[in-house]
Amino acid sequence: MQLKYSYYYFKSAIPPETCKRIIDLGVSKLAAEKEKGINVEAYTFGDRQKSAVGDGVPSQGELSRQELKKKGIENVYVRDSEVTWLNEKWLYDLIHPLVKEANARAGWNYEWDYSEHFQFTVYNSPGGFYGWHRDGDSDHPGVYKRYIHGVTPAPMKADGKLPDKYTTDPNMIGKIRKLSLTLNLNAPGEYEGGNLKFDFGPHSSKERFYECKEIRPQGSMIIFPSFLNHQVTPVTKGIRYSLVAWCVGEPFK
Predict the structure, then answer these.
(1) Of 114, 96, 105, 122, the residue nearest 25 (C-alpha)
(2) Whole-prediction pTM
(3) Residue 94 sits in which domain range?
(4) Residue 28 gets which letter from DSSP?
(5) Model confidence at 160, in pLDDT bands (50, 70, 90)?
(6) What is the pLDDT of residues 168-217, one digit of tens each?
(7) Do 180 and 115 form a contact (C-beta atoms < 8 A)?
(8) Is 53 helix (H, G, I), strand (E, B) or coil?
(9) Within a domain: 213
(10) What CATH number is attached to the domain comprising 127?
(11) pLDDT tens digits, 9-38
(12) How many structural domains does the chain have?
């Protein structure tokens, strides 16, 4: 799908003191979960996170995991980061108006009526990254399905997480991710690398691979359709903190 505007961003939209508040909240929750023995490693569709692959190699650069496989490199992981989940009301009050404005100004006008919990993500150096992926599909096979314990035939994962594309949240059943957002929480110079990078596809009228450095200023936020391929390049120095969320709605008609 070709878009006139592939993303929309707000530069320094969130003040530094609010960014620090979010970082403190996320770091505190991560520490509490680690204290309880909870696994805070970020997981991904198909379980291609670092710990699940063992002695694999990171899927970095401009080749996807599928392209690496064609070259004989099969044991790769596509994600190395830590996450926790935030659902404080003030975060939604802060973020949702910007998403609605971007949705209108970019001309997408996607219908959405709910957003998932915020994902607070920590990319440590050296090497924290997230390889090529899409946050969601744009058609009916990609909808979230209801999970009923003891009834749904798909088994729970070994770590207790639900199977991919299943949910117990009634607000998400039958819906897809339509809009993704990333808020950069770091002050300038706190990390190097760790850029959001898009793959607009081989038939795009614009540059295919694009590192979006427009959101490096602290408090900058980017919104884009969830079906776009993107990655976070490896962090080479410091720690990258970000807040991510996905807005969901019924499949495109």
Answers:
(1) 122
(2) 0.94
(3) 8-41+80-249
(4) H
(5) confident
(6) 999 999 999 999 999 999 999 999 999 999 999 888 878 899 999 999 99
(7) no
(8) helix
(9) yes
(10) 2.60.120.620
(11) 999 999 999 999 999 999 999 999 999 999
(12) 1
